[in-house]
From TrEMBL:
Residues 55-292 form the Radical SAM core domain. Belongs to the radical SAM superfamily. MqnE family. Pathway: Quinol/quinone metabolism; menaquinone biosynthesis. Radical SAM enzyme that catalyzes the addition of the adenosyl radical to the double bond of 3-[(1-carboxyvinyl)oxy]benzoate, leading to aminodeoxyfutalosine (AFL), a key intermediate in the formation of menaquinone (MK, vitamin K2) from chorismate. This is Aminodeoxyfutalosine synthase. [4Fe-4S] cluster binds at C69, C73, C76.
Length: 376
């Protein structure tokens, strides 16, 4: 393989191209190689085998119904305590009002994840979903991370499976992938010690999948984790996906380093580098051979790197969003929202075919590749 600068990658390339599965050691070799060009090409070929030139995105709205949270994750700059000026907390009716205020025709996905509020009764949550579905029947509600579901189980004094069942009956369409952080105990104890444990996070997703609900998975990287711990995180997700097939997408979340105690304690105020973002996405695409989509999350890695990531295995670039507060509280410099036309352009300029999807990954519209006129 003449195109390989790092010839030690040859057996990996052969294996991947034959549809084989990488071992943990082979995954680590991908992380450590200096031959980034080879990594990019392999991730791109893997992505193209699945999706050709297609890149997916959704017309979406993001809403955090409260930032009040008692969990105290050290990477978080979003959480506030009750009574603080910057705290907010919407009732179900106020959530409906906020969605109405931000509504733009064509939006299909409402993605909500929020703080762990200490006092709302269990009934608050299904009521919110029901009110939203009744007022906006075309809006698909993707909400509540596995960490929030565990919190609701405690409040509602019922098993997590029952929480999921009742939320699904109220109209919940899918679950986002937040709260996963890094599964490895060593890191989790330092960044999210009061949050759902790794095994429970995985169990809640297993339960959601058993109800026919699709979910996503995230990984927070670029802080105190090692490369082995990143791959271990992916490995556990790959195993669960083998079991259930219920994940739609894997989304690496680049650590945003401002205004949180983790950054202050470590003095680590650097953002992740573009190359680390791209390398991470490429390894994910190749290692997570059973995930349909790897998402480049423009809010955290910026539109420019996201556009380049379409050559590094990325098949989905999330959505238009409208307003985002978790990453921006921690220093994200991306815009608060993108227009649908802007997302289409971003994909077309990268020589790809934009596909508008909904929260279920139904294809709603396929746009022409750049420079090609749409057929009637
Ligand atoms: O759960 C919090 C993370 C998540 C920071 O499922 C941080 O489609 C980086 O889960 N730096 C919320 N990350 C966002 C999220 C998400 C985003 C996009 C798509 C999907 C999906 C899910 O953000 C939290 C937490 O893991 N987070 N603080 C920070 N300083």
């Amino acid at each position: 393989m003449k195109w390989l600068r790092d010839q030690s990658l040859a057996p990996i390339v052969e294996k991947v191209e034959a549809g084989g599965r990488l071992s943990f050691d082979e995954g680590m070799r991908l992380y450590h190689t200096r031959d980034l060009n080879a990594l990019m090409r392999l991730a791109n070929r893997t992505k193209e085998r699945l999706h050709g030139d297609r890149v997916y995105f959704v017309h979406s709205m993001r809403l955090e119904f409260t930032n009040i949270c008692y969990v105290g994750c050290t990477f978080c700059a979003f959480a506030a305590h009750k009574g603080e000026d910057r705290a907010w907390d919407y009732s179900p009716q106020e959530v409906v009002g906020e969605v109405r205020r931000r509504y733009v025709p064509g939006i299909t996905e409402l993605h909500m994840s929020s703080g762990h509020h200490p006092n709302h009764p269990w009934a608050y949550y299904p009521e919110m979903v029901r009110e939203l579905r009744a007022t906006f029947p075309d809006l698909q509600v993707k909400a509540f991370t596995a960490a929030e579901i565990e919190h609701l189980a405690r409040i509602g004094k019922r098993p997590t499976l029952e929480v999921l069942r009742e939320l699904q009956a109220a109209g919940l369409a899918a679950m986002p992938g937040g709260g996963a952080e890094i599964f490895a105990d060593r890191v989790r104890r330092q960044v999210a010690k009061n949050k759902v444990k790794a095994e429970k996070w995985l169990q809640i997703h297993r339960e959601a999948h058993s109800l026919g609900m699709h979910t996503n998975a995230t990984m927070l990287y670029g802080h105190i984790e090692t490369l082995e711990e990143r791959l271990d995180h992916m490995h556990r997700l790959r195993e669960l996906q083998d079991e259930t097939g219920g994940f739609h997408a894997f989304i690496p979340l680049a650590f945003q380093p401002l205004g949180n105690t983790l950054a202050q304690n470590l003095g680590k105020t650097d953002f992740t580098t573009g190359l680390d973002d791209l390398r991470n996405l490429a390894v994910a695409r190749i290692y997570l051979d059973n995930f349909p989509h790897i998402k480049g999350y423009w809010v955290m890695i910026g539109s420019e790197v996201t556009q380049v990531s379409l050559d590094w295995g990325v098949s989905d670039i999330d959505g238009t969003i409208q307003e985002e507060h978790i990453a921006h509280a921690a220093g994200a410099t991306s815009p608060m929202a993108l227009s649908q036309a802007g997302m289409v352009r971003m994909i077309q300029q990268a020589g790809r075919v934009p596909v508008l999807r909904d929260a279920y990954y139904h294809e709603l519209e396929v746009f022409p590749a750049a420079g090609v006129e749409a057929a009637d």
